[in-house]
Amino acid sequence: MKAVVKTETGYDHMVYQDIPEPEATGDLVKIKIAYSGICGTDLHAFKGTYASTKPPVVLGHEFSGIVTAVGPDVKNIKVGDRVTSETTFTTCGHCSSCASKDYNLCSNRQGIGTQVNGSMAEYVVSREESVHILPEQVSLLSAALTEPLACGVHASIEKGQVKKGDVVCVFGVGAIGQMVAQVCKSQGCTVIVAGLTSDADRFEMALANGADRAVDQMKEDITAITREMTHGEGVDVAFECSGAVPAANKALEVVRRKGTVVQMGVFPESKEPIRVDYILHKEINYVGSRSQKPSSWRTSIQLLATKTVVPEKIVSKILPLKDWREGFEMSINGEGVKAVICCNEDLAER
Fold first, then answer.
1. Using an 8 Å Cβ cutoff, are 160 and 262 in contact?
2. Residue 277: Cβ within 10 Å count
3. Is the pLDDT of residue 150 over 60?
4. Which residues are paired to 15 by β-bridges?
5. Per residue in 157-172, is it b (16+ CB within 10 Å) or e — as a string?
6. Strand-pair partners of 126
7. Dihedrals φ, ψ of 181, to 5°?
8. What is the reported pTM?
9. Using an 8 Å Cβ cutoff, are 92 and 79 in contact?
10. How far, in Å, CA of 89 to CA of 191, rounded?
11. From residue 2, how far is each of 32, 76, 265, 309, 322 by CA, in Å?
12. Backbone torsions φ then ψ of 74, nearest 5 degrees
């Protein structure tokens, strides 16, 4: 089968090549891939800056498809099912994080597309526990973005604990920021998105998908705007989704006293100058949100089923598998919001 393989560490070292098809053994489910999203971590892997990527490995962890084979230990998934899958392939199974099903925090976790072969290929295998059957009304294109949706659910509902009537500010309007904004809107929040002048197209997409206000921080004062919209109090919850330290500090500035700042973006360095004085004097809850976990996926599937959130609305470009490099270049250059690869043209939705 054809696949996009990171062959060794360092910049690029990415090859479109033939590799053996995976087999459905044990509790594994073999999935013919319809769509595979290009994620920020895939871009980090391309650049050689994502330590979790262990070459040689097929990249890709956001996907949907059709089940073509199941292992002998599989009980509830059958050939022909339309599915998506969590990114967890294996865990240690005995740490405190595994006991609470916080698989995203297991130190010995192996992930699809990082330590084991991922979805930028014609086929992938995933353990049955991670596979989710799709409701009939959910498109394969939207389903391929369940993973970033689940990240948004984890950050906004599980960590940020947003509720109806909250005013929230989302820094960063890439795919993750767009998903956080949509999830917050689904919970009855007033949503402000913040970015830069180069984000003009992304602002339009966020507003079209329900955001109440978009702020170009190079032209407008985000602090003044948030105060005006909250009667001087500050926003209830701010989300840092850009990986930019100035955005994190601005989030700490615009959030109200005893408010919450959720850190999702990955900073360039492990140690960065953060305004801890804001955290102290305003008694801010500064919370980390890493990836997603099984409960995030269950909520995401419910949101998809009711069409409360429709992830395919953020897709800017769909490319065939052989043109994967074009999609990576677009994403690295910040063109559009989300590029998606169609891995099997016979499963493309038209």
1. yes
2. 9
3. yes
4. 5
5. bbbbebeeebbbbbbb
6. 29
7. -60, -45
8. 0.96
9. no
10. 34
11. 12, 29, 32, 32, 8
12. -75, 135
**Token couple for 149:** 């949706």
Provide the residue type at 97 as one letter: S
Amino acid sitting at position 328: F
pLDDT at 200: 96
Write down the residue that tokens 């590029």 correspond to. 339
Question: How many alpha carbons lie under 13 Å from residue 185 in its C-beta half-sphere?
Answer: 23
pLDDT tens for 83-99 read 999 999 999 999 999 99
Residues forming a β-bridge with 17? 3
Strand intervals (E) in 136-242: 167-171, 190-195, 213-216, 235-240
Q: Do the Cβ atoms of 111 and 61 come closer than 8 Å?
A: yes
Q: How many CB atoms lie within 10 A of CB 226?
A: 26
pLDDT at residue number 270: 86
Alpha carbon distance 320, 127 (integer Å): 26
Q: Which amino acid is at 273?
A: P
Q: Provide the token pair at 59.
A: 């990249």
Q: Half-sphere exposure of residue 30, counting CA atoms within 13 Å on the CB side?
A: 14
Q: Are 262 and 287 a contacting pair, CB within 8 Å? A: yes
pLDDT digits (tens, 9 = 90+) for 320-349: 999 999 999 999 998 999 999 999 999 998
The amino acid occupying position 172 is G
Residue type, 221: D
CA distance from start to end of the chain: 24
